[in-house]
Amino acid sequence: MPELPEVETVRRGLQPAMEGAVFETIVLRRADLRVPFPARFAERLAGRRILALGRRAKYLLADLDSAEVLVMHLGMSGSFRVEAAPVGAFHHPRGRDPVHDHVVFDLSTGARITYNDPRRFGLMALVPRVGLADHPFFAGLGPEPLGNTFCAELLAAVARGRVTSLKALLLDQHAVAGLGNIYVCEALHRAGLSPFNAAMTLADAAGQPAAGAARLVEAVRQVLEEAIAAGGSSISDHARPDGGLGYFQHAFRVYDREGQPCPTPGCRGVVRRVVQNGRSTFFCPVCQR
Fold this sequence. Notes:
The chain is α+β, with helices and mostly antiparallel strands. 22% of the residues lie in helices and 20% in strands. It has six helices and ten strands; from the N terminus they run αβαβββββββααααββ. A four-stranded antiparallel sheet has the order 1-6-7-5. Strands 2-3-4-8 form a four-stranded antiparallel sheet, covered by helices on one side. Strand 9 and strand 10 form a beta hairpin. It is globular, with a radius of gyration of 20 Å.
């Protein structure tokens, strides 16, 4: 599933084509994705202007002038591409099997945005802007890891008293929003923390951040910022709206690097892979304590 860097990369790719544009025609080539499209979906979008394109966790949010928000999730294999851009802009090739093109948006700028999803685990919904944060998609989501509120103090408060593992804590969308398996493995390695440590080790007896909490916050921020700059990680399905691939997979330190030497300077460890809570965990048993 695309994680925060991939979704943010998609948002940045769509933003120039979508913000300020008006939906002219909407073509639905099936009745549903993961869930059915909202009632009168095409009718409610037609003629609406996109005021802003944002992101919350792994959701894309198109704020409309109708006081509704078009909420989009890529699921496991969803992607957008931009075609038929206005004269003077780049034209992007299809690059995907058209049999999986399920939604087509034609915009007032002349741009065509196509949503492609072979597994159909994505979704699109229309949600009132008022009360958006309380919608079931977003209620209870933790802080954005690149936002100002994400800090060692907050992470320690969330972790205090919890016996679940550090990896499970970071994957919990109620604790931190948007993180997934790849970037959690990478951040824990950068922070020098074992994925098996109890979450409560991030806080001391008084509930204040332990040293590892500050390292982990910094590592999460760094790995996400670097991944976004590289266009995300293209391992199976992720592609940018211009058809290009992400390149952060070439900078992985531990993820999918089983059996390779640990890249930490001076460390003689070898990257291991174990199954933790049903998911692959990649780590160095020597320098991650």
